[in-house]
Specification:
Distance between the termini: 23 Å
Strand content: 15-25%
Number of helices: 12
Shape: globular
Strand order of the largest sheet: 9-8-10-12-18-17-16-15
Radius of gyration: 24 Å
Largest sheet: 8 strands, mixed
Helix content: 25-40%
Number of strands: 19
Length: 497
């Protein structure tokens, strides 16, 4: 499987796309005895969103096939369409289906040997799959695909196993349709540069948490930190990283599993609660938080965007990953507003920089870049519940080169109107999902073991490109030294386990 970023491909004479990179890759992959799978991940520069001109999308795929010839027999159409992407700034299932319909009508006629695969669904997105099935249009596709990534939880863990077992039948366009799984454990090198960046995150986040504690007159109070390693670590902090941040703020950290933390909230022992799990929050805890804030508690939300999706504590180990319903209700209740932004798809302007927020002018943020998981803004409109009235204190903001504020990275919401507590939204990314090469090989082995337990029609595996080495890209993965590439070595190591 290789990804084609059409937006970056050069133009040939007359302005047409130069597909020579794709043609060469298809030939090289076949020389290695493998079946090439081309994944289209973008549209040509300046093209309208995916569903706005379906016929143009069909022409794009037809041109790709014509350039590569009969050596290209499998095409994946726009993976992760259920997330904000360059080809669709917001997930647009009807528009995506219009494009698939046009591609299928043309390519099934002109190239009946070409298999069309629905773009790999990112994460256990049950709502997307159920909406897809409700539209009853399974005939467009020849296979379905899932991307088994960090949104499923720890590789090989009980949470990931439950989510994968649930998603495989949901993602199939029809019973018995071949399923492809893209294995994608995230990786980073444990280098000095990464260690220095982690230290900057700890220092910056620690200072912001300390300021929130001071403003709420809770300096020195015990901070009850949720310990839930089975939750997907998207945009969050590892427990050790979160403890370092809270310790830098001067707090005494009490790490608790979910049941113990709920007990501390219920009997009033917890005055300060920290959740550092990023996008995924336990539903049971989300239900307890409005009352906790009503009674004057301080909630620290590290990473993010916070509480986008919920997870229910399972009968056995791990969690049952749920929907966005609880998160949307909590955002409305607590007046949380974040930008629909993903770092991988919408890089910040080169001139963007972190600056002290309007209400914290004495703060001096790091001048070096810091990873950002969430961007916040003031919520507009009147709250439906008077307890939603609040003061919005900007602590850390993002500005462009003209000193215009783009968004806020850290804000403190002081509630009023019957709610006595406060909420710190801290959008720095703890990068909890990243691991070194050894940990990645172990994660890949766990994913392979879980896939082996799936029904036969779902056992086809595709290795995601780009593992461990920036050189393992669509333009460099398959060359004369393919067998020496870290990605190939990792896969053999994981499969051997």
């Amino acid at each position: 499987r290789f990804e084609l970023d059409v937006e970056l491909l050069p133009a040939a004479a007359g302005g047409a796309i130069d597909w020579s990179v794709a043609r060469d890759l298809v030939a090289t992959i076949r020389d290695h005895g493998l079946e090439p799978l081309a994944a289209l991940v973008s549209l040509p520069k300046g093209a309208p969103p995916l569903g706005a001109d379906p016929d143009a999308v069909a022409t794009l795929v037809a041109d790709l096939r014509a350039a590569c010839g009969e050596g290209l027999r499998v095409v994946e159409l726009f993976p992760e369409a259920n997330r904000p992407r360059r080809f669709a700034p917001a997930p647009d299932l009807p528009g995506y289906l219009r494009a698939l319909r046009a591609v299928a009508a043309r390519l099934h006629r002109d190239a009946p040997d070409l298999a069309l695969i629905g773009g790999g669904i990112a994460g256990p997105d049950v709502e997307w799959c159920e909406a897809w099935r409700a539209l009853r249009e399974p005939w467009h596709l020849d296979a379905s695909a899932l991307r088994l990534d960090d949104r499923y939880g720890a590789a090989g863990g009980p949470t990931a196993a439950r989510a994968l077992t649930r998603m495989v039948p949901l993602a199939a366009a029809r019973p018995g349709l071949p399923g492809l799984l893209t294995l994608a454990p995230t990786v980073r090198a444990t280098t000095r540069e990464q260690a220095e960046r982690d230290a900057r995150v700890v220092a910056t986040a620690g200072a912001l948490v300390g300021e929130a504690l001071r403003r709420c007159e809770l300096t020195g109070a015990a901070i009850h930190l949720l310990d839930a390693p089975d939750l997907p670590p998207v945009g969050g902090f590892t427990p050790a990283h979160a403890r370092a941040v809270l310790a830098a703020a001067g707090g005494a950290v009490v790490t608790q599993e979910l049941v113990a933390l709920l007990g501390a909230i219920g009997d009033g022992r917890a005055k300060v609660v920290a959740i550092a799990t990023g996008e995924w929050w336990p539903a049971e805890l989300m239900a307890a938080l409005p009352g906790f804030l009503d009674r004057g508690g301080l909630l620290l939300a590290l990473g993010g965007p916070p509480a986008l999706r919920s997870a229910l504590l399972a009968d056995g180990p791990g969690f049952e990953l749920g929907s966005a319903e609880f998160g949307l209700a909590l955002h409305d209740d607590l007046r949380i507003s974040h930008l629909p932004w993903e770092r991988s798809q919408s890089p910040l302007p080169a001139t963007a920089r972190l600056v002290a927020g309007r209400t914290f002018p004495a703060f001096a943020p790091a001048t070096e870049p810091l990873p950002i998981a969430a961007l916040f803004r003031r919520r507009t409109g009147e709250p439906r519940d008077p307890r939603g009235y609040h003061r919005y204190d900007e602590l850390l903001s993002l500005q462009d080169g003209a000193d215009r504020t783009l968004a806020d990275v850290a804000v403190l919401l002081h509630y009023q109107g019957g709610r006595e507590g406060a909420l710190l939204l801290l959008g720095l990314d703890g990068e909890a999902g990243l691991a070194d090469a050894a940990a990645q090989a172990a994660a890949l082995a766990e994913q392979l073991a879980q896939v082996a337990a799936l029904p036969a029609e779902a056992r086809r595996i595709v290795l995601w490109r780009g593992l461990t080495d920036a050189a393992d890209s669509a333009h460099g993965l398959l060359d004369a030294a393919f067998d020496e590439k870290p990605a190939a070595q990792l896969f053999r190591q994981a499969a051997g386990k």
